[in-house]
Design a protein that fits this description.
heterodimer; A: 289 residues; Dihydrodipicolinate Reductase, domain 2; 2 domains; 12 strands; B: 339 residues; TIM Barrel; 14 helices; globular
Chain lengths: 289, 339
């Protein structure tokens, strides 16, 4: 199937490389608003058609693309979304705009493959919500989940930075709707250390008594295996630990090192998830020649 | 005589020294007294600002909503200030309600290298007709030129001032002078300084900042704040008076507040000790100290080793979850060395 990428920043560029390896999808357009970004240059060298007219380039030749990845910003996506809906495209929204059907491949990929607009929550959401659900399955009595994500400053592009407010709210809403917990909170930290830190996620569940830790471990490890199927660098950093009033699980995401270096697991988990969705859609809806 | 604005953050940074357990009565009595002492801006709420009552940093006894309402009720001429860290608090959930309650000055705060995450928050505050001050934390981790670059962004977003926080109490007077004087020269807006006393430098650093041209100092009654505490409001007011600066505050009242109200907040007031000195040396956020002590004890480690390791890893404010991880890793290492 043929795809278009909107947004030539870090996320768009990383997607471009991943699509290059795919058996199911190929990139037919790489479009943004700048004429000569680093990503545009890379696409040209790969022999892929580029445009600086963003969504207008898709509107001109809508039949050429089956899937559109929107890797711009929440504000831009709000403008793109109705246009792409009218064109009846499968849209995978990488921004925290939170329109469309929310997908976390480890949890609901099969019910997402026939939806026309998919959003991927946030990087922190992809990394923590499955664990929140695993914990809630083992400890349904917990009433509060809190997740803390730390990412390397160098991995946070202008999109992430200007969307930090939406990030917090979108991630929180994702935890609530997928895990069923009553109350939730999401926190994002940027850390400028050199060498850069890997994406680091802590999931806390408030509880008054020590849970069945063996059962928690089973649920968490099962979930991690599911995530690793499409995010190879996802791994546990701290086994479920109970202290006084909380259960703590820590994981880390090391990226594949496609466009940004490996520390940018936050970018990689989003593009890996987007690829999982696109490939599932392509498999279900047939390859077009 | 140049007038220096002293901002009172006792009910904000002081929350750290109370493990975020200020009672409603303590909030009420302190706010009323601050008004009496002619404090111009009183900052209130959780130690890490709005929306920071969390497992990660510590849960407040009193909700943000309640905290701000009680404070606001006691204030007439004194402005209510709030602090918010983008990524920890959000505009809709936290800032908007705080402004509705009557917060007039918003300290939009980030790690010293990340000023661009404050843009939306500063612009939102200005659009609501309120005053925004940009705050750069952990300023020992960036040189003067780097800090100026970040502060210029905040100025462009609409901040009326930039406040440099020495969050780890790691700066010496010469470092403060270098940073403040460059910012004063390079910015059109006011420049402020917020000290921590980990290395015993809080008063000296605050005075150095003013002499280097700072327009305002952020401090707390009796130095009541995270780690070894902050610059003491009454002490700085006295020292500034002696140095020939105006503060417009009632010095006797500030002393009375310190002795009669703040002194009763806790049996264990902030002090300089081995832990806080190590935190200053390691450049670790002062608020980490009590959590590090507790965690180190649990894993049978020397808390100073944990602090030094956190410093080596350049862990910043808000990353409290690394404390447990580092402790587990150090404990495992110790175990392996024994075997």
């Amino acid at each position: 199937m043929s795809v278009a990428i909107l947004g030539t920043g870090n996320i768009g560029s990383d997607l471009l490389i991943k699509i290059g390896r795919s058996r199911y999808v190929e990139c037919a357009l790489f479009a943004g608003r700048s004429k000569d970004s680093k990503g545009i240059e890379m696409a040209r060298q790969m022999g892929i058609e580029t445009s600086h007219e963003s969504i207008a380039a898709i509107e001109r030749n809508p039949d050429r693309y089956d899937i559109v990845f929107d890797a711009t910003s929440a504000d831009s996506h709000a403008i793109h979304s109705p246009v792409l809906k009218k064109l009846d495209k499968c849209v995978i929204d990488m921004t925290p705009a939170h329109t469309g059907w929310t997908c976390i491949p480890a949890l609901n990929i099969s019910e997402c493959a026939d939806k026309k607009e998919i959003n991927l929550v946030t990087c922190g959401g992809q990394a923590t919500i499955p664990i929140a659900l695993a914990i809630m399955r083992a400890c349904p009595e917990s009433e509060y989940i809190e997740v803390v994500t730390s990412i390397a400053s160098k991995s946070a592009g202008p999109g992430t930075r200007s969307n930090i407010d939406e990030y917090v709210e979108t991630t929180r809403d994702g935890i609530l709707s997928f895990s069923g917990v009553k109350k939730a909170k999401a926190i994002l930290n940027l850390n400028p250390a050199v060498p850069p830190i890997n994406m680091h996620n802590t999931i806390y569940a408030e509880m008054t008594a020590e849970p069945d830790l063996k059962r928690v471990r089973e649920k968490v490890h099962d979930m991690i295996k599911k995530i690793q199927a499409y995010v190879p660098g996802y791994h546990l950093k701290l086994e479920p630990l109970f202290e006084v009033d909380r259960l703590t699980v820590i994981n880390e995401v090391v990226g594949l090192g496609d466009y940004l270096p490996k520390y940018a697991g936050n970018l990689d988990i989003m593009t890996c998830a987007a690829m999982a969705v696109a490939e599932e859609y392509a498999r279900r809806n047939g390859r077009r020649d | 005589m140049r007038e220096i604005l002293l901002i009172d953050s006792t009910l904000r940074d002081g929350s750290h020294a109370k493990r975020h357990r200020f009672t409603e009565e303590e909030i009420r009595s302190y706010a009323a007294a601050a008004e009496q002492a002619r404090v111009k801006v009183l900052v209130a709420g959780h130690g890490n600002g709005l929306g920071a009552s969390t497992l990660q940093i510590g849960k407040s006894l009193v909700t943000d909503d309640r905290f701000l309402r009680i404070t606001k009720t006691e204030l007439k001429r004194t402005k209510l200030g709030v602090l918010i860290i983008p990524g920890l608090g959000s505009i809709k959930d936290d800032l908007e309600p705080a402004l509705k309650i009557g917060a007039e000055v918003v300290f939009v705060t980030c790690h010293c290298t990340e000023a661009d995450i404050t843009q939306k928050y500063i612009q939102y505050t200005c659009r609501q007709g309120k005053e925004a001050i940009g705050v750069l934390m952990m300023t020992h981790m960036l040189d003067a030129q780097g800090l100026l670059t970040e502060a210029l962004k905040m100025q462009e977003y609409g901040a009326s001032g930039v406040l440099l926080m020495d969050s780890a109490g790691a700066l010496l007077p010469k470092d403060v002078i270098e940073r403040i004087s460059l910012l004063v020269k390079g910015l059109k807006i006011n420049v402020g300084f917020h000290a921590h006393n980990n290395l015993g430098m809080a008063t000296a650093n605050s005075l150095a900042a003013v002499e280097a041209g700072a327009h305002f100092i952020d401090a707390t009654s009796r130095g009541f704040g995270a780690g070894a505490g902050n610059g003491s409001l009454e002490l700085i007011a006295a020292v500034l008076q002696k140095s020939g600066f105006e503060t417009g505050l009632d010095l006797y009242k500030l002393m009375d507040i310190s002795d009669n109200i703040t002194a009763k907040f806790t049996d264990k007031p902030p002090d300089v000790n081995g832990i806080t000195i190590t935190s200053g040396l390691a450049g670790v956020f002062s608020g980490f100290c009590p959590i590090v002590v507790k965690t180190a004890h649990k894993f049978d480690l020397d808390a100073r080793d944990v602090l030094m390791e956190l410093g080596r890893r350049k862990i910043v404010a808000g990353q409290e979850d690394y404390i447990t991880q580092v402790a587990v890793e150090l404990a495992n290492k110790k175990q392996n060395e024994k075997m």
